[in-house]
Design brief:
The chain is mainly beta and 205 residues long. The chain contains 1 helix and 12 strands. It folds into 2 domains: 82 residues, Thrombin, subunit H (Beta Barrel); 106 residues, predicted glycosyltransferase like domains (Thrombin, subunit H, Beta Barrel).
Length: 205
């Protein structure tokens, strides 16, 4: 069974611990803390019985789901909670977007007037990514609505994803900032992107 990753936070959004969802039912749940956060169990007030906390659970199909619960008790490396319920009025971050900082290449179709399909590749700077799209900066002026491709790699398995340029602005550095939406991705590709985005969020907390 695949481990279900979670973030335990206070109600101000501050991280308390990273954990895995060990088990749950309609109103109760058990979280197994990662080793580096076990020392927090001994800190006053962090996991006191009765404290209300927020939980973000990563779901492959639905994205990041926000929950609320009350701490019941702590046993070893496990936190037991009650009144476990999904936040009904919270914005669901199925397309959780994170800010990144790396260079990549995109593939852009070229129209040379010959009627033949041709493409060219050039470097861009990726500055954000989500399961729904990417943002990047480039010196190149690319037409809006154009469908381009982006080579994406996770766990050494590369995939090529098509995206459409929805937004383009020229910044103060005389470069172009683009906002793009992925098109035509299948469920397996979407799952890979969601896993990568969530892993990056965990690693930067």
């Amino acid at each position: 069974m695949q481990e279900i990753k979670c973030l335990l936070k206070d109600n101000d959004g501050n991280l308390l611990a990273k954990a895995a969802l060990a088990q749950h039912n309609d109103s109760e749940a058990v979280f197994e803390l990662e080793n580096e956060y076990l020392s927090r169990i001994e800190e006053d007030g962090v996991f006191d019985s009765g404290r209300n906390i927020s939980v973000e659970i990563f779901d492959i199909k639905r994205g990041v789901l926000p929950y609320s619960c009350d701490i019941a008790r702590v046993r070893g490396d496990r936190v037991f909670v009650r009144s476990f319920r999904e936040k009904q009025n919270a914005e669901r971050r199925g397309d959780l977007r994170i800010y990144v900082d790396f260079d990549a290449y995109i593939i852009v179709p070229a129209n040379d007037g010959s009627g033949k399909s041709s493409f060219y590749k050039f470097p861009v700077h990726i500055n954000n990514i989500s399961a729904g799209g990417i943002g990047f900066v480039s010196e190149k002026n690319i037409d809006k609505e154009l469908v381009c491709s982006f080579a994406f790699s996770h766990n050494k398995f590369p995939i090529v994803i098509d995206f459409k340029i929805l937004r383009k602005i020229k910044n103060a550095d005389d470069k172009y900032e683009y906002g793009c939406s992925f098109v035509g991705i299948d469920s397996a590709e979407e799952q890979i992107i969601r896993e990568w985005v969530f892993d990056r969020q965990l690693s930067h907390l």
